[in-house]
Structures are given as structure tokens and as C-alpha cells.
Amino acid sequence: MGRPPCCDKSNVKRGLWTAEEDAKILAFVSNHGIGNWTLVPKKAGLNRCGKSCRLRWTNYLRPDLKQDSFTPQEEEHIINLHEAVGSRWSLIAKKLPGRTDNDVKNFWNTKLRKKLVKMGIDPVTHKPFSQVLSDYGNISGFSNTGSSLITTQPSPACTGLPSTTIKGMPIIEKAQENSILDNNIHTWEYQAHFQVINQEIVQAHFFNEATSSCSSSSSNNLTQLSSPQSYSCLYQTQTTPCSSFNWSEFLLNDPFISTELQQQEEHDLQGVSMQNEIQMTNKTNANECNMNGVARKDSGALYYGASFGGQINKQSEGTSSSGGSFVDAILDRDSEIRAAFPELLDEVFDY
DNA sequence: AACTGAGCCAACCGCCGAGAC
DNA sequence: AGTCTCGGCGGTTGGCTCAGT
């Protein structure tokens, strides 16, 4: 049989740690070092689970931890690393001395994600929302041509990050400027459209939210979504759908295939060793995120990414969407509506 | 002063791979 | 070979703080 349980979970203390408990752990670690955490509570005289002791030590008591707030350099580093590896906080934290995965995760969730959204950047894909919508239009089969929605961008004035932080932003800003002029969109319309687009992102961008809450198995998709291939569209005009962008290839491609761009990015991030680490885990993640269109439930989140992948493959192969999955049902219904109301194809909806 | 909602973060939960038994 | 725990990880949550009303 296996090992005996580390502790009686019903009788251990939970919740916030007291200074006395902290002192006991510190004293124990300084005398004995870090070893078997399951023995720490008993030896240190604590009524806590060993796992809880380890967390307390790694997230708060470790002497090498920084207590001060994140610097702008760290902020930029986190954004770049998140773009490269997704929400693999432990990998990101390893590149930031003195920071824990919990620190980075909290900082991202409370500050950086909101900051990016405010800038008009999708925090999951690190692409402008307009780009995400354009891509989303490609997935569902809609043509975005003529839709002023996809030309919208937030005012650059609201940005608080260095312009170099977000790849392609200057290009987007220029394209945005051109598209606004081309389409004679007045400023107030522009801002109103962005408000609409923000609401749409929150409501209709469900699959990204799903992938963002996906744990290890979603990280693969996240990385794919932020791969350099996805930035090729930034060089196109905003009013034109990304004809070169192919989601089926995008989702099926190995995100770690070496390209010049990627090598440059790896160099920029000093992430060569990180890429190796990712490749080690990628095999597992690829198996988990199978492309058979099976939505998997884990920690309350559905893995829509895998479902989309499966559906896209079907579409690209020219087969009907009668498979019966959730996405199949949506697309079937979509087709019905579009067939019944063809005039809707050219309409811009104000939700 | 009391209430409320948002922001923040420490800690917990649940999953996974590795390895002990 | 099968069962179980450990250690690590990412996602989530409970509770504290603080600004606004």
C-alpha cells in the first residue's frame, strides 16, 4: 500500500498564520533546513498541514523574497513572459528573483490584466481586441469587412506602459489612425464603439476566459494564441479580415517550432532555458488538450479551446457540422439564422 | 458614523506527475 | 501492478482595507 497520510486534515488549523506560527517555521527551517514538509508541523510544534507550512514558507517566509511592490521593469517582464508562456506562473516567477508564483499571479490578476484591457489589449492573447474580434469572425465564418467595430481602439492616452512593451502597438496605432480617417469615424463614435467592443469582449470572448482559467492543459492554447504567427495580421489594415490567418493551422501548429521571430523573442526574453522547460511539459499538455472537440470540465472551467480546434478542423475540411458538440450546435444555429436573414450579414449590431 | 462596493492578497482547493510502498 | 502520498502547480475564494457616499 501507499504512504500514511501526512496529517489529519480535520484537526489541523487553517486560515491566517500568526507571528508565533511563523516564528516556529523560521526557527525550524533555520535549524534543520528544508526537507520533508509533512514532518515539519510535528517537529516544529505546529497544528498545521505540511502542505500549508510549505506554502507559508515559499510564499511569505522565504528570506530571499522581495517585500516591495513590483517595479516597471518587472511589470514589463511579466507581460512579455505571459505573452510567451501564458499563465504558467511558476515559470514566470522563476525569471523574477524574489517573486513567487502567487505574487506574480496576484499582480497579474489585480493590476496587469486590467491595465492591458484598458489599453485595448486582450490579456489572454496579447493582441488588440480588434484583432481578436477579427480572428473570431474568421472562426465563425463571418466576414468583418465593412464593420466599423473592428477599427476601434482605445485612446493611446490611457496607456500606462512603455510603448515598447506591447509588440506591434505603434503599428496598430498607425493603422488605427488610418482606418479612422478612412472611415470618417468621429471621435465620439470611436469611443462609443470601443465601449461596445469592451462589453462584447466580456460577454462574447467567453472562450478566452475559459482558456484563461484552464490550468496546465490550457496553457498550450494560450501559448499558441500568442505565438509570433498571430502577429502577422498586425501588418494588415484594420478594416480587412486577416485572410492569411488560419485558425486551424494556428491551433494545430506546434507553438514551439523555431522561427526567426520566435528565436528573436526567445533571445529578448532570455527565455532559452524556459522554452526547454516548456517543451518538457508541452508533450503532456498536447495530450491533455486533444483536438477531438471534447469540452473538458476542470475546476469549474470548460476547455472551449479544444472544442474550437476540433470544429475548425471540420470546417476546413469542408465537412458538415453535424457532430453534435456544443460548438456544432452553435454553428448550426448560426447558419440557420444567417440563411433566414441574409441581410444581417452586412449589419453592424449595437448590442 | 455607518454602509457599500471595489481592490487586494494570503490561503485554500483540486489536479497532476513522480515516486514510495 | 496497483494504490497512495508528496510536492508542485494554477485557479479560486474569504476576509481585510480603504475610498466613496
If you had to describe this structure to a student in words, what would you say it looks like?
With about 350 residues, the chain is mainly α. The chain folds into two domains: about 45 residues, Orthogonal Bundle (Arc Repressor Mutant, subunit A), CATH 1.10.10; about 230 residues, no CATH class. It contains 16 helices and two strands. Strands 1-2 form a two-stranded antiparallel sheet. α11 packs across α14. The longest helix is centred in the N-terminal third of the chain and has 18 residues. The structure holds a DNA duplex (21 and 21 nucleotides). This is Myb transcription factor. Keywords: Developmental protein, DNA-binding, Nucleus, Repeat, Transcription, Transcription regulation.
Give a quick set of tags describing it.
two-stranded antiparallel sheet; DNA-binding; single chain; 16 helices; 351 residues; 2 domains; mainly alpha; 54% helix; 1% strand; Arc Repressor Mutant, subunit A
Write the topology of this structure.
Elements: H1 19-32, H2 40-44, H3 50-61, H4 72-85, H5 89-94, H6 101-118, H7 129-140, H8 169-182, H9 187-204, H10 206-212, H11 216-225, H12 247-252, H13 260-269, H14 272-288, E1 297-298, E2 301-302, H15 304-316, H16 326-340
Antiparallel strand pairs: 1-2
This protein binds a DNA duplex (21 and 21 nucleotides) through helix 3, helix 6 and helix 11.
Protein name: Myb transcription factor
Subcellular location: Nucleus
Main location: nucleus
